[in-house]
Amino acid sequence: MYDRVLITTDGTECSVTAAAHGLALADAFDAEVHVVTVVDVQAAGGVFDAGGLTADFVEALDARAKKQVEAVASNADPATTVHTEILKGTPSNEILRYARENDADLLVLGTHGRSGVRRVITGSVAERVVRLADVPVLTVREREETSLDTTYDRILVATDASEDAEAAVEHALSLAARFDAEVHVLYVVDTSVIRPKLGNLVPETVRSALETVGKEALAAAEARAEDVGVDAVTEMVDGVPSRKILSYADENGADVVVVGTHGRTGVDRLLLGSTTERILRSASTPVLSVRRGDENGDE
Predict the structure, then answer these.
(1) What 8-state DSSP symbol labels residue 78?
(2) What's the CA gap between 255 and 186, in Å, rounded?
(3) 3-state helix/strand/coil string of 227-289
(4) Model-level pTM?
(5) What is the end-to-end Cα distance of the chain in Å, rounded?
(6) φ/ψ (deg, to 5) at 243
(7) CA angle 63-108-299, nearest 5°?
(8) Can you spell out the DSSP letters for 107-134?
(9) The CATH number of 154-290 is which of 3.40.50.620, 3.30.530.20, 2.40.128.50, 2.40.40.20?
(10) 8 to each of 40, 170, 243, how far by Cα in Å?
(11) With contact defined as beta carbons under 8 Å apart, do 33 and 3 qualify?
């Protein structure tokens, strides 16, 4: 399923942890590894730097970038093919361009998980990559306690019966098969989308319809898990999807969360956010974001 894993690093603790996960996945899938860092000269110098940047300053940036990619590459298995590259420009744009040009089928990067006005104005490199990437993206959020444990024993995948979620289930099962892990499939009965109009009263016909969809999605995932020889646990809960997914992951000791993403952009996303992006900003575990069409490939 993953033949070329693209790992991005900026030398921060969360990117170092993300790189460890990327290398573990490359080992599990016998994949080729590409390690890149992006030197954003304008951002490093400051947008209001009227004096320009000296050659020494740019050279120092390049030297630091070289150390960052070499540090990741040095941790790869000796049998793994590793390519390193230093890119110049806007991080999200360069990462996405490199991924397309080198046919990467998995992107791995750390995220600082910032929130508030600054995130709304400038966005996040990780969130922009997740929204626009044509392939799955594994993100590892910055935390006070960062673990380098890259063992996946329990994999949580959320389903809402959409095509994106079906793709996410396929990736979760592929991971489980490679790591000999147990898969937990969670469906959240999301009545919040209609409650603003109906208050706390949700018609039983609506709830019943949502539960029927959930049961069918869970049954399909369980059958697929049986087909590929993966142990699966299914669960249906009621609530706000992002909150329930995060709490379930913590309570059940999930090592990675797999979610489908619709990759929407524009005003709708800025005003409402998305379940995937809320999870990216708050998850205590790595998050693998998948959109439909990403499930293709050999396992």
Answers:
(1) T
(2) 15
(3) HCCCCEEEEEEECCHHHHHHHHHHHCCCCEEEEECCCCCCHHHHHHCCHHHHHHHHCCCCEEE
(4) 0.87
(5) 5
(6) -65, -45
(7) 135
(8) EEEEE----SHHHHHH--HHHHHHHH-S
(9) 3.40.50.620
(10) 14, 24, 28
(11) no
- Which bin fits 52, alpha (ψ -120 to 50), beta or left (φ > 0)? left
Give the tokens for residue 130.
């997740």
| Residues of the chain with confidence (pLDDT) below 50 | 47-48, 50, 114-123, 264-273, 296-299
pLDDT for 233 equals 97
Strands 106-111 and 4-8: parallel
Structure tokens at 98: 């490199």
Query: Domain 4-141 adopts which CATH fold?
Result: Rossmann fold (3.40.50)
> Measured between alpha carbons, how far is 252 from 236 in angstroms, rounded to an integer?
14
- Provide the pLDDT for residue 51: 52
Contact 33, 25 (CB under 8 A): no
Tell me 90's DSSP state: -
Residue with tokens 């809402």: 160
Closest C-alpha among 238, 220, 203 to residue 161: 220
Q: Enter the DSSP assignment of 12.
A: S
